[in-house]
UniProtKB/TrEMBL annotation:
The chain crosses the membrane at residues 214-235. SUPFAM superfamilies: Growth factor receptor domain. The lineage of its organism: Eukaryota, Metazoa, Echinodermata, Eleutherozoa, Echinozoa. Keywords: Disulfide bond, EGF-like domain, Membrane, Repeat, Signal, Transmembrane, Transmembrane helix. This is EGF-like domain-containing protein.
Amino acid sequence: MDMKVFIDVDPCVSSPCGEGTVCVSTMFAYECQAATTPATGNSTTEVTDTSTMGPPANPCEAEGDAYPCHELYGVCENIDGTPLCSCYDGYDLANDGVTCMAHLNCSHCENGECVISDAGAKCVCDSGYMQGTGEHTCEDINECKSESSVCDVEYGECKNTAGAYYCSCITGFVTGGNGLTCQEYMDTATDDPEETTNFADHDEPIEWKIARKVIIIITVVTLLIVILSIVIVVICCRCKNDDKVKEKPNA
């Protein structure tokens, strides 16, 4: 709880009354009364000069070193001529009632970094986040809702994530090198056996290439041998049949 402190300054210290009068101090004012008569020892009730200080001067209007509160972060409130100091948000008033000290409470700073400076403690948000409604909160920036689309306007789709975003493309398109634009998908597959073989040869190790060629050669030779054997068998069978046909009439 804040406690207001009032300081009663005696205005008679500066001897504001003239000769033959006595300064009598009152609350925030003074009166000049006639001095006691030496002959009788009695005081007169006649007031020869009555004066008041009027409204006390405003100490909060002072400048420079005369300013009663903290020069940078202090707030001065004039209470009947007495300055009452407080501090801006983010600062605490020290025990002397004048100095303002940075409030170092920055315990909760999610998605940001707590930075302490002369201006106090505050959250500096990470990339992709912005200052939230609370003093120490950081909220995600939805880049996909920005006025200027970050992805391909015609074929792209923006996907927002926590602290970031990414772009995807509709069917038939792929993202470009920068990840933002969309390019039409070109199918490089071909039905040409020669081109297919060349593509495979480019990717395969040399050992696989040699083994594959050897297998192809062996397979071709084997097929030729089988075909040749079948042809020979067929020819032999026909020759035997012809010989049998020729032998029957002679018998």
